[in-house]
Structure prediction request, 527 residues.
Amino acid sequence: MHARKHAEGGSTSSTAAGPPSRADLGDARAVLEGPEINRALTRIAHEVLERTKGATDITLLGIPTRGVPLARRLAGRITQVEGRAIPWGSLDITMYRDDLRLAPARALGRTEIPAEGVDGRVVVLVDDVLFSGRSVRAALDALNDIGRPRAVQLATLVDRGHRQLPIRADYVGKNLPTSVRETVTVLVEELDGRDAVLLGPARPRAGRAGSAEEEES
Amino acid sequence: MRHLLSAGDLSRDEATLVLDTARELAQVSSRSVKKLPTLRGRTVVNLFYEDSTRTRISFEAAAKRMSADVINFSAKGSSVSKGESLKDTALTLQAMGADGVVIRHSASGAARRLAGWVDGAVLNAGDGTHEHPTQALLDAYTMRERMGRLEGLRVAIVGDIRHSRVARSNVLLLHTLGAEVTLVAPPTLLPVSVGTWPCAVSYDLDEVLPKSDVVMMLRVQAERMRAAFFPTAREYSRRYGLDRDRFARLHDDAIVMHPGPMIRGMEISAEVADSPRSTITEQVANGVSVRMAVLYLLLGGSESAIGNGN
Prediction:
């Protein structure tokens, strides 16, 4: 469904050998580099503080794979400003995806909920790319089985448009106008060795990448 | 749709995928909502021709935690007692649209026969004296959780190997995962083909114990015995039972396992069974997580992620 994002992000090889590499990027063009990503995350951290009036009861939950290091960094930046630890963790959505039956069963990502839990807290979901909105829908379902947050907000590094569900982000690193068939790939230092957002050329509709879109019409 | 018929069908990557998936799914048991929506709308039939407590309940709990619909079938009180064959029962299930069939049968090879008759995935939950792959997976999971690794782990499997499907599945799986298995039994309780298995064999428990990280005790399966395999239960127990004295000869980190049901005082003393180094109740809890993982990997996607080798 998410052309590039999950064609690789949640694929089968990720458990034993660590996260999949994103080496095969061909002629993709960088639209954001490290320093811009850093500035965007710093700005989001301040926006979170502002919107939640001091972030006293927030919990950041990254959506694997690349939402998790982003959540950790956001938590770090908020901590720098406020001088106290911000709980953060990860929330795997594999079991809640609506396209599970379109592909072979995938390996699961990690779910780690901080000790404070989510009941009564403001949970900020963190993802790398917001596209169809289906990952976020799955994340909301997953969250619902874990507890009852006071509110749920969404932060994303890139919003590439083409929503298929009534979902919007509260905090956006960069709005990136794309065509549906272009690919957006986020690289993070922790997993890929460098920070970048790459925009790849439109790909032919092969394999499963396009199946969800076809189903849509 | 593929099946899980033998522990030997799993490659190292597939087996590791099952264990890693089980580890994530174990978290579900500690949440307030102990359920995942993943297998909603899928039907799993528990087809049990042989008595079972642990395995049947474990598969039922696993399937229900994944939101599958579960139909329990036991041979007693069904048309089997009127003489219906396995094939006709299988065709009935087929007509009802079972996505997965969990089968326990007293005949070795029953699961593989069934796999040829139904479209759904077949999960072998024990076929005669042949195999019990999910038991081997939960044993490997328990060892990995307790010992932190499987590679190079020294595992002794002790007791009635000849009639044990657990022993065969464990030998195959543990070999795949890099552990070193030694089977310990009197010569009469070893299968004829044991020389071809990827493991060592010993008749002397006292010699093997100090060199083991894991000791797995097996029950003497009197119900499958049609001849005398040892003089008396007491003599068996004295030579092959794990009592306090033998337990003391294990190194301090070694663990004791038992697939159940156990006969206290026969192959294992009550004191050993209840020791903190015994994993017997952990094995039961882990069984649910491992079976959830297997059900997810077989039924959760468009095609199975494991067991495609058969």
